[in-house]
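Protocol step 4 of 5: obtain the predicted structure for the target chain.
Materials: sequence only (see below). No template structures provided, no constraints applied. The aim of this step is simply to have a reference model before the mutagenesis design in step 5. Sequence pasted as it appears in the construct record:
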Amino acid sequence: MAGGPALRASGLAFSRSGRPVFAGIELALDAGGLLQVLGTNGSGKSTLLRVLSGLLPPAEGSVSWQGLPVRTGDPAYLQSLAYLGHADGIDTDLSAAENLRFAARLAGLRPSPDAVRAALARLGMERAMQAPLRTLSQGQRRRVALARLALIPRTLWLLDEPLTSVDDQSASRFHELLDAHLQDGGMAVIATHRLLPGGGGILELGDATALAPA
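Step 4 output (structure tokens):
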């Protein structure tokens, strides 16, 4: 739809075992846009991200990307999307560098060793790039997972509590990465318990009102 928002959700509702999780969600996001999703545990933040990613179908309403309906497994949407859930999605028997190379291959990319090192450096993990993930702390593993965002270009980030177990210095590195992504015309929907710097819109589940600019 010419002139419309890149990502739009209209009248989204989701129920689990017959109990409503959320209803009436409206949001619109375009290039450079950030939407922070707030709410208590169990309010549906993670579920909303999974619906937006196409991993779960909504009970009601619709999600569209670039004016077209989002459907499960839609390759065009998946090529535009980076989704990071509570689980880091990494293999603890592989090194940090091997995990990034594997993720890049799944995305159809063949990054150079320098590109992998640079991505890990964005999160301060270049010195541990050859260490097996099982030897690293939970915060370090999270930083490796976040480094995939720096290596694999995706327009839309859907991130669920990205700073879990991450220290303040590493959080600042993530904020710099996020700022660069938004300035380059990317967009992000981030579920969080605490507001991140950088503004953007706010959706507090329970209110079912998104303040993200179209």
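Step 4 remarks: Residues 92-152 form one domain. The chain is about 30% helix and 25% strand.
Proceed to step 5.
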